[in-house]
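anyone seen this seq b4? input:
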Amino acid sequence: MSQEIREHVLNLMRQKDKIEDEIKQLTEILTMNGVGMSDPLVDSEDFPINSIDVYQVRHARQRIICLQNDHKNIMKQIENGLQGYYSSSSSNQSIGVQDIEMRSDHNSVTHEAPFAKVTMVSPNSPAEIAGLHANDFIVEFGSINASNFKNLSDVATVVQHSEGNQVPVKVKRGERIIPAVLVPKKWQGKGLLGCNIDVLK
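predicted toks r here
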């Protein structure tokens, strides 16, 4: 039984990886057009903005929304599957779960080197809602990773352009790479995230 659950979870993780890859490609289309998920595509007189491929952006936005819903559902299925694996496994099969987690890391992460660290997360903040913890190491923040990160203003730019929209984030916690979805927005505290991020020295 546990072997069947394990294969099921690994299959779900492969599907999750494909969804994340497609979201990333579609997000790059929006970035190339200089817009996020909610920026206007027409000017004050309702004419399409010349610098934007309106059809391409609308299609990408619609597809991203569908994929984000799929991603949310599949993450829930993976969580339920892992819980089922734990409950049906005997104590000597815990290595199998670790193997699942490691394979998830291997399949879904193209960048593993962190470039920044979360030093504080405020209660009830967007960062806490996304599941970020203090001492998480940030591996990916939207399109930013160790290979293209220059300074914290890069992160600030992504945050400002993504207010109210979902930003895919990956953090390293211990030996695990954990995907999260962060929605920068105004809340009762300071900033749009509610966490402190420091550059790794």
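The longest helix spans residues 54-88. Confidence is low (pLDDT under 50) at residues 90-109. kinda curious what u guys think
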